[in-house]
């Protein structure tokens, strides 16, 4: 492949050197540059890729794409572009022969619910025999081939590679989470979304976006992209205040579809019933009524379920079949995942709630199951939005009987300091601080009484604890199960010993 084959869609690059230069790979990391590679200089949050163009050339890169003109002594092929991230996306699309145009892309955005909704969509599409890939926080599924996820939404280069694999594996659609970071960094530039779903917008990622308005503007981009598609469908939760604002902005778009509990929603929910084993509710759409059953629990999963049904319908599935298929919805890893056995005296759930709103939702779900008490174990991630920490503590305090504050991926921060930040949100003295997460979980289990619900929040499916850049093995689900087993064994041994002692003459 020659450079000229890759730049057809690029907006007027200034080219130095021969466009007939052969290209074998693309990279935005100088450490991976080699002969035949095009190196893209990206301006990042930590460093500037433009500082590494010399290094990339030293390693044999055949061409450079940058937002600056080449230095005078440069003999290499150099493409001077306005925006290297957009150039990367456009050249990656061409490099992989435009897989994004061979699939029906369905994008899900919002602060909470993306992973769950994307999983459910993937389930519904495959159930309808529309082979579908999945990209999101938990896993990348390229049509039967599973890979660990690197990001919620990968960089454009990786994204196009994954879409290309989906095409090769016979996929016709892709259900993907679209993060605000990805939208802001042009990772999904050029993806012709046919369906976009907005779940909600609440506080998160203000370290990156600065204000809720800018966070919203980043999310809105997905809807601008979808609105430009001739068949674009914009599926928006109008029970959410930012969702209503979004729906207002697109009110004259023929593809606007709203959902929620309120009377104005196009997909309207009624009469929800929440049980430990699942949820049922009525779904009203254009004069038709359906009874939806799902094994997923809690009100927030009603929203995710409706969003996925509406999304699958918009993407070509039969509505009645989609509703029916919800009864076999998969357990979403680490999302209100029950880890205690059915016969347990108390119930233990692992959930990925890591925002104030996520916690309120997860804990009100637990409350609706009528427990004796709610015991919550939670922490706040290091190197992430500091402003959300006290709000998370407040959310937990308001919705729990016992709060156990611990560590959650301290990353490069001191876990004690993070706990101090969070602690400021508690208004009462009745909380416990246990910096070591395993001990915190054990404290909850040891203190549980009959009928209690323990929610271990924040890490969900994550199999690690990130401390100073090192990912140590740590899976809340495995740890909780191990501790439950150990506690049951110890209690059994004590009981046996007592029986033996009591039985002695
Ligand atoms: C803040 C952020 O989003 N950063 C992303 C961004 O990195 P960056 O541009 O800031 O990178 P940088 O370290 O400053 O380096 C700049 C450039 O120099 C290059 N470089 C650097 C060193 C060198 O020796 N040679 C070299 O070429 C780097 O490869 C890079 O191209 O671009 C990188 C490539 O795409 C991403 O991997 C990286 O994600 C980091 C790891 C990250 O943690 N991102 C999170 C916040 C994120 O994106 N999360 C969202 C989900 C959020 C949610 O909704 O919950 C996601 O979609 O995953
Ligand atoms: N629709 C929803 N509304 C509010 N809270 C939700 C919703 N769906 C899930 N949650 C809560 O948020 C947590 C994260 O859910 P999920 O992983 O589906 O969201 P996400 O948007 O993919 O999050 P992330 O951006 O971190 O990947 C869940 O564990 C649950 O506590
Ligand atoms: N996508 C989110 C996940 C947060 C998960 C939580 N365990 C944490 O580390 O804060 C983020 O990167 O901010
Ligand atoms: Mg996610």
From TrEMBL:
A matching Pfam family: Mur_ligase
Annotated ranges, domain Mur ligase N-terminal catalytic: 23-96
Start and end residues of each Mur ligase central domain: 108-310
GO cellular component assignments: cytoplasm
Species classification: Bacteria, Pseudomonadati, Verrucomicrobiota, Verrucomicrobiia, Verrucomicrobiales
Domain of life: Bacteria
Residues annotated as domain Mur ligase C-terminal: 334-460
Protein encoded by which gene: murE
Compartment list: Cytoplasm
Protein's recorded name: UDP-N-acetylmuramoyl-L-alanyl-D-glutamate--2,6-diaminopimelate ligase
Residues holding meso-2,6-diaminopimelate: 384, 408-411, 458, 462
Binding-site residues for UDP-N-acetyl-alpha-D-muramoyl-L-alanyl-D-glutamate, renumbered to this chain: 30, 152-153, 179, 185, 187
Residue list for modification N6-carboxylysine: 219
Gene3D superfamilies: Mur ligase, C-terminal domain (3.90.190.20), Mur-like, catalytic domain (3.40.1190.10), MurE/MurF, N-terminal domain (3.40.1390.10)
Keyword Hydrolase listed: no
Cofactor: Mg(2+)
Sequence positions that bind ATP: 110-116
Family: Belongs to the MurCDEF family. MurE subfamily.
Free-text function comment from the UniProt entry: Catalyzes the addition of meso-diaminopimelic acid to the nucleotide precursor UDP-N-acetylmuramoyl-L-alanyl-D-glutamate (UMAG) in the biosynthesis of bacterial cell-wall peptidoglycan.
EC number: 6.3.2.13
Keywords assigned by UniProt, alphabetized: ATP-binding, Cell cycle, Cell division, Cell shape, Cell wall biogenesis/degradation, Cytoplasm, Ligase, Magnesium, Nucleotide-binding, Peptidoglycan synthesis
UniProt pathway annotation: Cell wall biogenesis; peptidoglycan biosynthesis
Catalysed reaction, written as an equation: UDP-N-acetyl-alpha-D-muramoyl-L-alanyl-D-glutamate + meso-2,6-diaminopimelate + ATP = UDP-N-acetyl-alpha-D-muramoyl-L-alanyl-gamma-D-glutamyl-meso-2,6-diaminopimelate + ADP + phosphate + H(+)
């Amino acid at each position: 492949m020659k450079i000229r084959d890759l730049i057809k869609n690029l907006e007027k690059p200034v080219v130095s050197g021969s466009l007939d230069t052969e290209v074998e790979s693309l990279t935005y990391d100088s450490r991976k540059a080699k002969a035949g590679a095009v190196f893209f200089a990206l301006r990042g949050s930590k460093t500037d890729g433009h500082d590494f163009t010399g290094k990339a050339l030293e390693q044999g890169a055949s061409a450079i794409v940058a937002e600056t003109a080449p230095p005078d002594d440069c003999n290499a092929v150099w493409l001077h572009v306005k925006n290297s991230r957009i150039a990367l996306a456009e050249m990656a699309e061409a490099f992989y022969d435009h897989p994004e145009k061979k699939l029906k892309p369905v994008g899900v955005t919002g602060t909470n619910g993306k992973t769950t909704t994307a999983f459910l969509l993937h389930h519904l599409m495959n159930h309808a025999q529309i082979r579908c890939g999945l990209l999101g926080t938990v896993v990348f599924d390229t049509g039967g081939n599973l890979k660990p996820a690197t990001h919620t939404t990968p960089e454009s280069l990786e994204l196009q590679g994954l879409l290309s694999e989906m095409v090769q594996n016979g996929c016709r659609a892709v259900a993907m989470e679209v993060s605000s970071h990805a939208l802001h960094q042009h990772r999904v530039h050029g993806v012709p979304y046919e369906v976009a779903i907005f779940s909600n917008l609440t506080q998160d990622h203000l370290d990156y976006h600065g204000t809720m308005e800018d966070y919203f503007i980043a999310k809105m981009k997905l809807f601008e992209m979808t609105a430009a598609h001739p068949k674009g469908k914009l599926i928006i939760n109008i029970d959410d205040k930012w969702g209503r604002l979004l729906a207002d902005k697109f009110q004259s778009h023929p593809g606007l579809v709203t959902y929620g509990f309120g009377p104005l929603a196009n997909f309207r929910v009624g009469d929800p019933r929440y049980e430990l084993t699942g949820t049922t509710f009525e779904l009203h759409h254009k004069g038709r009524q359906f009874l939806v059953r799902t094994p997923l629990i809690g009100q927030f999963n009603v929203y995710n379920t409706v969003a996925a049904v509406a999304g699958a319908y918009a993407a070509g599935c039969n509505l009645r079949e989609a509703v029916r298929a919800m009864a076999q919805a998969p357990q979403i890893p680490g999302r209100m995942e029950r880890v205690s056995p059915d016969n347990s005296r108390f119930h233990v759930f692992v959930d990925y709630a890591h925002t104030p709103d996520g916690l309120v939702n997860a804990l009100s779900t637990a409350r609706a199951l009528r427990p004796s008490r709610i015991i919550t174990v939670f922490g706040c991630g290091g190197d992430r939005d500091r402003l959300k920490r006290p709000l998370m503590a407040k959310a937990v305090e308001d919705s729990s009987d016992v709060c156990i504050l611990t560590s959650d991926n301290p990353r490069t921060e001191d876990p004690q300091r993070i706990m101090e930040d969070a602690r400021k949100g508690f208004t009462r003295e009745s909380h416990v601080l246990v910096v070591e997460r395993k001990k915190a979980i054990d404290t909850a289990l040891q203190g549980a009484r009959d009928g209690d619900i323990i929610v271990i929040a924040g890490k969900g499916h994550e199999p690690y604890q990130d401390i100073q850049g090192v990912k140590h093995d740590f899976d809340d689900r495995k740890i909780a199960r191990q501790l439950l087993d150990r506690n049951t064994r110890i209690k059994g041994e004590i009981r046996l010993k007592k029986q033996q002692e009591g039985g002695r003459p």
